[in-house]
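Below is how a single chain appears once it has passed through the pipeline. First comes the sequence as given, then the structure the pipeline wrote out for it. We keep one example in the README because the format questions we get most often are answered faster by looking than by reading.
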Amino acid sequence: MNFFFWSTIKPFLEIIILAFVFYRILLFFQGTRAFQVLKGMAYILLAFLLSQFLGLDTLNWLLTKFFAISILAIVIIFQQELRHGFARLGQGNLFRVFLEEAEVVAVIEEIADAVFKLSDKKTGCIIGIERESQLKTYIESGIPIDGLLSSEMIQTIFRRDSPMHDGGVIVRGQRIVAAACLFPLSENQNLSKIIGTRHRAALGLTEQADAVAVLVSEETGEISIASDGKFIPVTGPDRLRTILKDLLVAYAAPQRGHKK
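Resulting structure:
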């Protein structure tokens, strides 16, 4: 009786487990070129499971051979996405800094004040704001600061005669942890050729980690925000504050819940 029960529920259990695993894989690669391919693979996987369940031996054999080849092909074709995905997976910050919403807003105000003053002077800058992923690799490439974040501090770091002007600043919580940091350049082949190194670095950082980057163009004074490998247009101070609040305040929620 027990054997009959197990043989009956086993196929359904396998389907549920595999569906869950594939769903997590889709989330892992969401936003990359591989995502659409994996969606197609999900339908083929469903057909494979149904062929097993219904005992369609010929179809099952064909799909088994197809999967063996397709896994190798995916590794070769999407090696860039796999590298980025695993890099982000390994950057989970077990000790991340949680802030109250009011503290996040205060940080945003300091950053907004600094970048608009730098924009008026056409002084270039790039500020990487750590969220859930650790930016340890990029912090180690720069000069340790570990100072309380303020508009004056940011402006001082990015003065043209400052030795820390080149490179980026990394913000963690309410502190500037490092300056003159080297950010990875974006590998997006679709970017315009006229986009400068600072913009490519901002995109590259947000492709490799879930950080947010705020930058000022040295040529035009234009302010931009980068997140998830994309630029978000900034039309004024209020727009900048709104975008940053939307991107950063969500990370304050766990702390508020913990204090209740």
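Confidence is low (pLDDT under 50) at residues 91-96, 253-260.

See the next section for the split statistics.
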